[in-house]
Design brief:
The chain has about 500 residues and is mainly alpha-helical. The protein is about 80% helix and about 0% strand. The chain has helices at about 15-35, 40-45, 50-80, 80-100, 105-135, 135-170, 175-180, 180-195, 205-210, 210-230, 235-240, 245-265, 275, 280-295, 300-310, 315-320, 320-340, 345-365, 375, 380-400, 410-440, 445-490.
């Protein structure tokens, strides 16, 4: 009997409430990628951490987050997304409390590594649940909200971090950056048990369904890329450069092993046909990863510039980048509704606006007096934010639209893995450029900000080229499909 699970679908009446709960939980996990940036000086003073420890507080979270995304998606595909969502959410709440209560730097780093692992298991369940609960135009709107959460959580992190430090004080306020997850997470857990529908996973043994060698090979490949980047502030690129070619070797071995696994009729960790046979997935994933190289790194750059360069408080530093978050929130909500009709035109337009906004920031940082930079970049950051909301949300929808439901968790995890790698690359490159220019120029933070923004624009322009390529490819696929339809419908002679 044919499997009709992807075609026969009775909408769950609780689906929008369930989505709100799961997105709230996902928002916390993604928020913790950026919210800590403004709290680093407070962490260093409060716990006596050195610069290396402070870097691991940010990068260690991103490292373990990126390492488990695909495996977390696979577990959700196999054993049920509701079950994995609740397990991961409980883990995230517990590790947030552990991190906030850390008495020394060592336990702080351990807590962040565990917290990142829990968040990485949680995030792919969101995209999988959307695939399960929604169809047609509703799925586009749901993915639009998911994409908005991804973008807004990154942009709003510095603002919320600064606000928390202003309320609880800079000495111990950093602990509340982590503690705030606990009550929100507990409420989300209780609501999820009532609202998220149960879709049983396959009755199977773990060893039969989880490709452990694939997990190891992919984990080593991702680790080889991320570890030198997260250690970049401590000379990681110089000491650990050999991990990059090792990552390529492990990556190639992973691809060969996964193809062999499919040929032998076993369950792969990631079916490589996801990239080769799913229209738009590979290009969309590449676009997302490249955009995050330019997008995610600017928040640490702004935090360093405003707090270390101009001596602003964390709250003031966060508020100055609020226009980006506001613009992104508004445009992402609208883009989720428009993506079905406009498609890739939205991402191309959005990337163009981001490039224009960040180029303007670079010019203003170079031309206007340093004391005036804060208020002069409000308008260009708003423009860039409007563009950013038109990138992440539609790209998520368009990249995952042709993915079969049975692969939704893995596909979402792989997409997020690319974004996490992009975040690590962008943060290392842009922060490294900023600090390098500051050092070589004798403390000229304005010039350093300008150069860092130019580097960010470079990544955005590469993503724009990928978007234009995919826009043309979609038109070609549409034309071919229409021609085939006309040919089949034409009466035979």
């Amino acid at each position: 009997m044919a499997d009709t699970r992807e075609t026969a679908h009775e909408p769950d009446p609780r689906r929008w409430k369930a989505l709100a709960v799961t997105l709230a939980a996902g928002f916390m996990g993604l928020l913790d990628v950026s919210i800590v940036n403004v709290a680093l000086p407070s962490i260093q003073r409060g716990i006596g951490a050195d610069a290396g420890t402070a870097q691991w507080v940010i990068s260690g979270y991103a490292l373990t987050f990126g390492l488990v995304l695909v495996s977390g998606g696979r577990l959700g595909d196999t054993f049920g997304r509701r079950r994995m969502f609740l397990i991961a959410l409980a883990g995230f709440v517990a590790t947030s409390a552990l991190t906030g209560a850390a008495p020394d730097a060592t336990l702080l780093i351990v807590g962040r590594l565990l917290q990142g692992c829990a968040a990485g298991m949680l995030t792919p369940q969101n995209s999988g649940l959307i695939q399960d609960l929604f169809r047609g135009a509703e799925r586009g709107r749901a993915f639009g909200l998911f994409g908005a959460v991804v973008g807004i959580s990154t942009a709003v992190g510095p603002v919320l971090g600064g606000l928390i430090l202003a309320i609880f004080g800079e000495q111990d306020g950093w602990r509340w950056v982590f503690y705030v997850n606990v009550p929100i997470g507990v409420v989300a857990f209780v609501l999820a048990t009532r609202l998220v529908p149960e879709k049983p996973g396959r009755r199977t043994r773990l060893r039969d369904e989880i490709d452990f060698l694939g997990v190891a090979l992919l984990g080593l490949a991702v680790l080889g890329v991320l570890l030198p980047l997260v250690e970049s502030e401590q000379g990681g690129l110089r000491r650990l450069w050999w991990l990059f070619p090792a990552a390529v070797i492990f990556g190639l071995a992973f691809v060969r092993w996964e193809r062999r696994t499919v040929r032998h009729g076993r369950s792969p960790l990631m079916d490589i046909r996801l990239f080769t046979s799913t229209p738009g997935y590979a290009s969309g994933a590449a676009l997302g990863a490249t955009y995050f190289c330019g997008f995610a790194g600017i928040w640490l750059v702004f935090a360093i510039f405003f707090q270390q360069g101009l001596g602003y408080s964390p709250l003031r530093s966060g508020l100055l980048v609020t226009p980006f978050a506001i613009g992104s929130a508004v445009s992402a909500a609208l883009a989720g509704r428009l993506v079905a009709g406009l498609g890739r035109k939205l991402t191309v337009t959005g990337l163009s606006l981001v490039a224009v906004g960040l180029v303007t920031v670079a010019l203003l940082a170079w031309l206007v007096p340093v004391a005036d930079i804060g208020w002069t970049i409000i308008a260009p950051l708003l423009v860039a934010g409007i563009g950013g909301g038109m990138v992440i949300s539609p790209n998520t929808t368009l990249t995952l639209e042709c993915v079969p439901t049975r692969m939704a968790g893995v596909a979402g995890g792989a997409l997020q893995t690319g974004q996490r790698i992009g975040t690590a690359i962008g943060t290392a490159v842009l922060a490294g450029v900023l600090r390098g220019v500051v050092t070589s120029s004798g403390g000229d933070y304005a010039t350093a900000l300008s150069v860092a923004m130019v580097c960010s624009v470079g990544f955005v322009l590469i993503a724009l080229a990928l978007g234009i390529f995919e826009l043309r490819a979609r038109r070609t696929r549409r034309s071919a499909a229409q021609l085939q339809y006309v040919t089949l419908a034409a009466p035979s002679e």
